[in-house]
């Protein structure tokens, strides 16, 4: 599929029924959501795509959040003109921004959107942005990945183990897109004025606790952000899933999404 600015966007389509587009988060080329596809395809037409700059999708400079809206608009058009969205992590922020921008979206479900709540968290985010831009501007991808992992609560041991693993080279390929996710999350706090304009039914979910590799985060990091989102999106539903993972087992997550999207 070719987006409005000429960028090719690669996607997988499966199943039949109402359309649901899966929106991945940071350092994800669509792989994290791929296990959800067969779980949801019995009830829905599922589209799992590689966001621009990831996997086999193209990339066109300069980046702008509006280009990601155009990618989603093209995917929505490809499945008939309307679709539900599920956004994980920073992909949840993108889904919410797309709805606020007026795309023809049905229902929106998000999980663990990493907005920053409180002065200390916002300052940490601002410091990360400054250092990330410098690292990527100089082509220091390993440093950019390490900065992101520390921001997400990983320890030095976690980072050392990751950098020695086979997963590290593919992550280096994705490192420039960390800047794109940073744009999706803006200044750090939830964009409450735009959230208040969302009219679609919205499910705001988190786990019951942090994943082990995120132990450096405040325990209620995702929960606080979810509470603020819920309080500003009119009629939003707040849900805590009894898991301790940032990437939820699809057999646990799929029934939650099915219930919500078929309501």
TrEMBL record:
AB hydrolase-1 domain ranges (all copies): 33-207
Keywords: Hydrolase
UniProt cross-references to Gene3D superfamilies, sorted A to Z: alpha/beta hydrolase
Family matches, as InterPro entries: AB_hydrolase_1, AB_hydrolase_fold
SUPFAM superfamilies: alpha/beta-Hydrolases
Gene Ontology MF terms in the entry: hydrolase activity
Keyword Phosphoprotein set for record: no
Top-level taxon: Bacteria
Protein name in the entry: Alpha/beta hydrolase
Organism: Streptosporangium oxazolinicum
